[in-house]
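Subject: Re: docking follow-up (flavin-adenine dinucleotide)

Dear J.,

Thanks for your patience while I sorted out the input files. As discussed at Tuesday's group meeting, I've set up the holo structure prediction with flavin-adenine dinucleotide included as the bound ligand rather than trying to dock it afterwards. The sequence and the ligand SMILES I used are pasted below, so you can double-check that they match what you have on your end before we go further.
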Amino acid sequence: MLTHIPQEILDTLTDVAMPRLGPAPEPSGLLELGDQAIPVVEAGAVVIGSGAAGLRAAVEAKRRGIDIVILSQSAWGGTSACSGSDKQTLHTANTADQGDNFKEMARAIRAGGAMDEDTAYIEAVGSARAMASLQYLGLPLPQDPLGGTLRYQTDHDEVGRATSCGPRTSRLMVKVLAEEALRLGIPFFNQTTAVEILRDPTGRVVGVLAMRNRDQGAANRYGLIYFRAPSLVLAAGGPGELYRDSVFPNGCFGSLGLALEAGVELVNLTESQFGIGTRREGFPWNLSGTYVQAMPHIYSVDAQGAEHHFLADYYRTTQELASNIFRKGYQWPFHASRMLAFGSSLVDLAIFRECALGRRVFMDFNRNPVPVPGDQPFSLERLDADVATYLGTAGAIQDLPIDRLRHMNPLAIELYRRYKIDVAKDPLEFAVNNQHMNGGIAVDTWGQSSQPGIYAVGEAAGTHGVTRPGGSALNAGQVFGTRAAEHLAKRCPAPLKGDGAPEVSAALARLDRLFRQGSPHTVERLQTEIQARMSDHAGPFCFSEDVMRARAEAHNLNRAIAEQGLAPPRPNQLARALQWRQMALASEAVLAALNDYIAEGGGSRGARAICDPDGGAVPETRTGTVEAFRFREETDLNTGEQLCVRYDGQQMSVSKRPNRTFDEAAKTFFERDWPAWLTGTIYGEERA
Ligand SMILES: Cc1cc2nc3c(=O)[nH]c(=O)nc-3n(C[C@H](O)[C@H](O)[C@H](O)COP(=O)(O)OP(=O)(O)OC[C@H]3O[C@@H](n4cnc5c(N)ncnc54)[C@H](O)[C@@H]3O)c2cc1C
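The structure tokens for the complex came back this morning:
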């Protein structure tokens, strides 16, 4: 481990400049509809979103000869470009020093249950290719002198399959993929927000309607632009704006509502990750890895300014307290069972309760953990064995947390400095936040949704199960971005007939009916209501009656919007208003799934505790049990199946389906299986 890394190296890993986009491509034509003239872009397929997953799909499709177009709300927005943890990760199955193999890795990926076994295998077996191709494009992943990839352990990962090029790994991924997209000449429509998927009367996808402020005018009152294509790849990321308490960057809406409106099936919406981080109001960042492995002092401050050493009410000894702060480094997401036996998720519970009291929570890197009353002071000599071994190996034996952090990961300090926060001087405010949606659009083994012609990749797709090893989100986006492109190339549907005028005209009429003077549903009110409901009732701690009530309220909101429309927003907020209407739908879908899950007796799992006075487990603390947070234990009952949600224009319906299986004993045989590859039968049926 280097003790001094030159500043210019730190700078290149934290300040990642993105490529310059050229002028916006010209549309292919204009669709005249009465007094409106809507620009049209004809394409073989359209990728919606320019995060790591969307760019991967676009690049792979273009290389296979597809006439692909990218449209994006914000070219370098979204989570890949704007967020990360202190170690953004990719999954690497190579350099196995533990006898690692793809089947083993697939088992780890799906260990939490409710995940398709074939999907887990696809992600495992595809990871080496995803990683190697990123290296080929210039992603600077760290290597040992013999070319092996440096690896480390993350959450839900026993082997240490993760790797990283520092805090900006996913931004660097976007950079190298974007450079490749530009090199390949893929048309890129920036500041362009997809607002409605269009289908013809037979149900066939005929493209997507988007909004661009620059197109607004008398002859195009909503600033519409029609992307006419028989295939769409939804790569719009996760629904970060669903929650008030969120570590997603600002403006992440995802495409769950867009998909629901088009009748596309969603899956595993009950599964989201929550954990500690700094909120998006400041600089959104996960406080995992070395931030907590340095073991800063954690405390809260009440409205009167008094400090509270609240973790001392939870842990029995200073050693236990400090060791559990450390463990949040690789046990980062909240997990109900880790609240038991004085585990590391007691930290999340404690912080959640402090925030509920109206207190602000901080970590101070200039103070070691303060002792538990009556116990010995903090000492590096008194730590649990796993913690002491790790810190010893890392050489993190400095007296103060800030020096241990500087030693283990100087980039961690540098990163916050970029946003005018100096953790070497000032305590850092943080909370338990929503960070990732494991569920999403249901897809098959090629990334295709329930609607032929619509693919979903990256966080838009609901490919993760209950848990996911740290780093597998980025890996899944790369693997399925490639798979979707391969499928598109082999199963490219016939070109569209006609010009789409009936579909665009019907969409225009819907917009005319939707925006109504006097409607109470403004952008601001929708945002406040939806985010408060989700954070207060569908966060890491869920109570059955709360969820039931929240679901009914979410449904009422959607009914009210259907009846009263949306208040016309400022002209530059038209797309935003539609995204909030879609969030209202997404929120009802999440609550519908959660409510069904709880009503059926589902136990705590993933990053959610299902709190229940009759639950079999209760968090125990130094000062007694926390009865109010008694919870249902994790059970195997529902791990073999997934909850699916569809919207019929009025109601959400929730159904179940078993996980797809994967036969681990089955072996490929070259001469037998080659023809299926050569003839393309591996891609399944031709699209009608
Ligand atoms: C703080 C934090 C830390 C994380 N750490 C890790 C980690 O260490 N390892 C890991 O694997 N994962 C991590 N994740 C998750 C991971 O970063 C995301 O799952 C991943 O980046 C999603 O990539 P994506 O391409 O699917 O979406 P995004 O990168 O979010 O991109 C979405 C794109 O869609 C565009 N868009 C959105 N809506 C529309 C629309 N309607 N029309 C047009 N364009 C639209 C956006 O502008 C953006 O370009 C982390 C997430 C967060 C928030």
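A couple of observations from a first look. Residues 275-434 form one domain. The two ends are 57 Å apart (CA to CA).

Let me know if you'd like me to rerun anything.

Best regards,
T.
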